[in-house]
Amino acid sequence: MPVSRCLTPALGFAAMMLASTGSNATEPPSGDPVLTVSGRISEFNVDNHFVFDMAMLEAMPQHSFVTNTPWHPEAHEFSGPLLREVLARVGAEGENIQAIALNDYKVDIPVEDARRFNMIVARLMDGAPMSVRNKGPLFILYPFDNESETQSQIYYNRAIWQLKALNIE
Amino acid sequence: MQATRSTKYWLILISVSLLLVFSVVIYIQYHQSRLLNSTIQYNESNVSWNVFQVEAEALRLGNHLYDTLNAGTPPDPEQLQLRYDIFYSRVEVLKNNPTAPLLLDEKNYRAMLDSLYRFLDHIGPYFESGDGLDADTLRSILGQLRPIQRQLHDLSLDSVQRSGRHAELRAAEVERQIRISTGLIVFQLLLTLLFFSIVIRQIRQLQTSRSQFSNLANFDPLTGLPNRRLFRDRLEQEIRKAQRADGRLALLFLDLDHFKDINDTQGHDVGDILLKDAAQRLIRCVRSSDTVARLGGDEFTIILGGLDRTDTAARISQQILDSFGEPFQLAGRKDYISASIGITFYPDDALDVNALLKNADQAMYVAKAQGRNRFHYFTASMQEAAQARVELINDLRNALCRNQFHLLYQPIVDCASGAVIKAEALIRWHHPERGLISPVDFIPLAEETGLIIDIGNWLFREAAKQARAWRQSHHPDFQISINTSPVQLQPEGIDVQAWGELLNSLDLPGNSIAIEITEGLLMDNGFATRLMEIQELGIEVSLDDFGTGYSSMSYLKKFDIDYLKIDKSFVRNLKAGSSDLALCEAMIVMAHKLDLKVIAEGIETLEQQWLLNSTGCDYGQGYFFARPIPPAEFDHYLTKLDGQALVT
């Protein structure tokens, strides 16, 4: 049916418009919070933070790539929203991201990295959610295999796992 | 050849070494790049961090358990689960770091992992469900955690120390490899230099041998003078120069007089000494800008460029002739050798190399013909004569088949009886346009072109037929003598067998023919064998022009000569009491002693005949008796003579 084929992208676009401008954008998460963004952001849903639950991250456009990492013996497919889209979602205005892990490990990621590389906030490894034991639930990843430039200690250190919070500075 | 082969092996050896060294260097660099691989480096540098993180997480877990124990409230299962999972994940990270067993004491590391997993597996059920975590269990877990924390602390300290050492070892390893590869690269450089030095040396050798080759190609090895090739090149160059400058050049063609005799009688070594000396004399006589070349044999050419006056060529030619006036030192004895020079000018006489060479050559022949030891300019009439010569040779080629030759016969008279039983056959060429041509003019051409062989065979056949006729009609012992050229006596000359067959077919004995040869022939052994073959047919041999050449008695003895012909120069001035008469007498006496008959040539007067008769000469020939006449007239002459004989 050619008509509906033409309609589908139009409808999708309308839904996107609703999602970005609709009132539920600033509503607090309904599920367990998995990622709290704070600092220089313009969108808030809980006090002066923006809190994501897994469903909200899942609702965003998903990006995936296969890559080797220093922490896995083989290559795996990782998928999740692009970091720059997460930043856009919260209206981030800073140039630096302080990423914090469950064990309070902290690392600075320049916002520039998110612009230059298709970094993702990975939710899935090989299509399955990641447990805390398996460096989940969220894992910021650079496309190491696609961008050979990122195969260095600097970027390996910035790939933070068991991510729980982002502080935009 | 041997040197080239060993060089080739060296080059192959060096190439293989270079290839090997290159490969090793590339391997080392690959190895280094692996050592410096960021993932491995990251993992290595993270081993201590990973151990430390496990230790920290163990501490956090412990603290959390303590807090729970002290608070006295029931534990928060979610928090416990999280702490457990984080701890678990830290252990996993350590386990999954591939460089950990290499950097840590492997035994300790494995033991550590074992106790950690044992501990985790043991407490797992409590943390996953949150059930049964009463105070006693918590204390027991803490009790189990304590030795693990100590163990982790030791491993952590050990890892820090080991990573320091590892970094040093790695640096040392890298340094060692850099040293090795630097050494190899220097070696490579030396090999490359060696390679190129060998190649360059080879190229130099090649160039030297090439220039030697070009020397060989352009210079005469005996005299060191430019050869024909280089001479032509130089002459072309000089012609172009003269053309541009609107100038004049002279070409001298020089030939040593009687060089062949020196070569033949004294050997080629002596001839070579003479040529070298002559070359030196020529160089001394010309200006340094002039070219002296040797075309081959005893032929030299001299190019005198940039002449403003033609008499310069004459001056230099005279200098050359003067310098040849000094005797040559040949094999311990002095010899006088003169030279003949032909001179031609560019652009006056000719414009190109070939024409100039031909001119100078012709002029040289004129100088020779005029008595040698002189120079002669090329003239236009010489050009015409040369042209005529070429035409004459062409006509000569056709003369035989067009029946233009005929024979005349001059009677040879028996001095005692006046009888005629011998005649000399003399060839004549009746040219359709130029009339009668003297043998003096065409025989040299026939000899030069080899036509003399065919002409000689024709003459023999004609003479034999005539001899048969006169033997039948006149006298059974009639003999006709024919002149023979040295060319005919060469290996590819007379076919003796064919002559023999012809005589057989005519039923003639060999002595119906006598061949006349010049005495110079007898000196050459090559002619001697051929001469003896002819004698074996029974043909008699008559020595022509006796007294004008070497007149060597030993040769007369050696060869079975039948007749001596005293040259007409002796007969011409024969008078009573003259020295010529004495000479004739001596020759005749000597000939008779050697059992030879004597024929005197050129008898023109009664007095001459008388005098010769008185000295005992056997035969006479000359206008006094009869001039050379055609066969029919000869018949008539014989008939008349026979009549007289009958009368007397």
Give your account of this protein's structure.
The complex is a heterodimer of chains A (169) and B (648). Chain A is an alpha+beta fold and 169 residues long. Chain A contains five helices and eleven strands; from the N terminus they run H-E-E-H-E-E-H-E-E-H-E-E-E-E-H-E. Chain A starts with a helix and ends with a strand. The model of chain A is unreliable at 1-24 (pLDDT under 50). Chain B is of the alpha/beta class and 648 residues long. Chain B has three domains: 9-196; 228-378, Alpha-Beta Plaits; 403-647, TIM Barrel (Alpha-Beta Barrel), CATH 3.20.20. In chain B, helix 2 packs antiparallel against helix 6 and helix 3 (77-96) runs antiparallel to helix 5 (106-129). The model of chain B has no long low-confidence stretch (mean pLDDT 88). The chains are: A alpha+beta (169), B alpha/beta (648). Chains A and B meet through loops of A and helix 2 and helix 3 of B.
- Return residue spans of chain A where pLDDT drops below 50 for at least 5 consecutive residues: 1-24
Provide the CATH topology of the largest domain in chain B.
TIM Barrel
The third-level CATH topology of chain A is Sulfite Oxidase, Chain A, domain 2
Mean pLDDT of chain B: 88
Provide the helix percentage of chain B. 55-70%
CATH class of chain A: Alpha Beta
The strands making up the biggest β-sheet of chain A line up spatially as 2-1-11-5-6
Largest sheet of chain B: 8 strands, mixed, barrel
Structural class of chain A: alpha+beta
Going by CATH, the homologous superfamily of chain A would be Oxidoreductase, molybdopterin-binding domain
Order of helices and strands of chain A: HEEHEEHEEHEEEEHE
Counting H and I runs of at least 4 residues, what is the number of helices of chain B?
21
- Strand content of chain A is 25-35%
Strand order of the largest sheet of chain B: 8-9-11-12-13-14-15-16
Overall shape of chain B: it is rod-shaped
**What would you report as the Rg of chain A, rounded to the nearest angstrom?**
16 Å
Task: Tell me the span between the first and last alpha carbons of chain B.
Answer: 92 Å
CATH class of the largest domain in chain B: Alpha Beta
Q: What is the largest interface, and how many residues per chain?
A: A-B, 18 and 22 residues
Q: How many domains is the backbone of chain B divided into? A: 3
